[in-house]
Each structure stands twice: as structure tokens, then as C-alpha cells.
Amino acid sequence: MIRFLTVLLILFLPTLPAAAQDTQGQSALEIEEHITGLDIENHFKHIEELYTGKAPDMNAIQAFIEQYPLDDFVLSGTATSNRGSQEPVAFSKTKIQFIEEEKERDYDLIDTRIRHTLTDIKYLDDKLSAEVSYTSLYQGRMKKIIPRKGLSFLDFKSLSICTTTLKLVDGTIKGKNANCKTDIIYGEPISAH
Questions:
Q1: Which of the chain's ends, N or C, has fewer CB atoms near its CB within 10 Å?
Q2: What average pLDDT does the segment 169-185 reach?
């Protein structure tokens, strides 16, 4: 269940111009880089486009996950599901753990949809960072080949309530940390022979 959380979380990739030409085309005029609400909205929109579809591109998702976290990134929180003890399970992952978990993923996603609702944005003093609170509703199906059993499908729905710190670095939004409370509902596994 914890490995699946990597797929559920909010990651985005907007860009901004670092410099602009003056009206006479002479020297470049440096523009002070800062994070904006539009950057943040575009970041979430990018994630929605990446994870929504009949067959999301798992290689593109992995590439995004590898470039998203800053070196000191930490993902933490709790997760509950209708499987197992149904008690909240606490988790905490570093950048390396976060990326390695995605590399170890042993399923594909199909018929998925994710939607984010931003509930609060607090801009930080460095002008490059913002603390963003949001909810994320994610649903779809995991497809996995199980040795000696064949193809298996597992439907899921999840609701995450998160607070994350995003930072604009060289025109790209990166993740500094995230804390999420996630509830997951799994359907019954379906085997295809």
C-alpha cells in the first residue's frame, strides 16, 4: 500500500522565462524569478494530465518522479485502506526512497483520473517557495502480471489531504516536502486468464 502512495501524490512541472529582451532587442533584462499562483496551478494541471487517461505513460511518470524532489525532500503522512488492519499506517520517505519505490513499481495504470483542489497557498519569504494545501481525488485500475496466475486487475479510489512545500528552481517547480493523510478503497482483484 505504501508503494502505491508514490503514484497518488502531487507532483508538477511548470516553467518560467529567466530573462527577457528589451523592446529594442539590445541586452537581456533579468527578471527576478519568483513562484506565482499560475506556476502552482500549472504544476497541478501537469500532474493531472500525466496521470489521467486510458493508459498513462508510466515512463513519463517515472521521469517526472525522478526530477521532481529536491535533495532534502521528505514525504510523510499516514495512509488507511480497506485492506489489512484498516488502522492508519505512518510513512516517511527521503528523495532516494521516493525514487527507488517508483523504479520498483510492478504494475501499470489504466483508466485513471486525478483531480486536485487547491485550498490554500502561503508564499514564503524567499519568494521562490510556497506552502500549498490541497485535496486530491484519484481513481483507476492497476494492472499486474502475477507469475503462474496471469493478469490481474485491481480498482482503487483514494482521497488525499496534503500540505506540500514547492520551490521554483531554474524555472521548474520542485518538491521540498509533503505531508499527506490518504484514504484508499480497493475493489476485489479480478483475474484475466
A1: C
A2: 96
